[in-house]
């Protein structure tokens, strides 16, 4: 009998808060914005788990920088293509 394997993703992200400028406040409807969250880092691990609950880390990435969101999307799309 062939063992079933599944892939799990674990993700953590970090954000920097900044004050909302007056122009951004005028775009609101019923909510008052106080801060904006700007992604500044992420970490993820891709794990393969079989039916016996044995696991293997397939890949991982940790990044901090101003382009964290764009880099995360690019990296996770590559991971998806490899699954």
Explain how this protein is built.
24% of the residues lie in helices and 49% in strands. The protein has one domain (5-82). It is of the alpha+beta class and 83 residues long. The relative contact order is 0.24. It has a three-stranded antiparallel β-sheet, with helices on one face. It is elongated. The protein has helices at 22-26, 68-82; strands at 5-19, 35-50, 55-64.
Short description:
This protein has 83 residues and is α+β, with helices and mostly antiparallel strands. 24% of the residues lie in helices and 49% in strands.
Quote the average pLDDT.
78
Poorly predicted tracts of residues: none
What string gives the helices and strands in order?
EHEEH
Helix count, DSSP H or I runs of 4 or more residues? 2
Q: Approximately how much helix is present in the residues? A: 10-25%
Cross-sheet strand order for the largest sheet: 1-2-3
Count all strands and give the number.
Answer: 3
Could you outline the blueprint of secondary structure elements for this entry?
Layout: E1 5-19, H1 22-26, E2 35-50, E3 55-64, H2 68-82
Antiparallel strand pairs: 1-2, 2-3
């Amino acid at each position: 009998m062939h063992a079933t394997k599944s892939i799990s993703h674990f993700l953590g992200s970090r954000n920097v808060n900044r004050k909302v400028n007056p122009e951004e406040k005028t775009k609101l409807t019923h909510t008052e914005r106080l801060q904006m969250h700007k992604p500044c880092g992420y970490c993820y691990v891709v794990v393969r788990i079989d039916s016996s609950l044995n696991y293997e880390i397939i890949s991982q990435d940790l990044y901090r920088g101003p382009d964290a969101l764009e880099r995360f999307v690019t990296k996770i799309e590559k991971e998806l293509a490899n699954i």
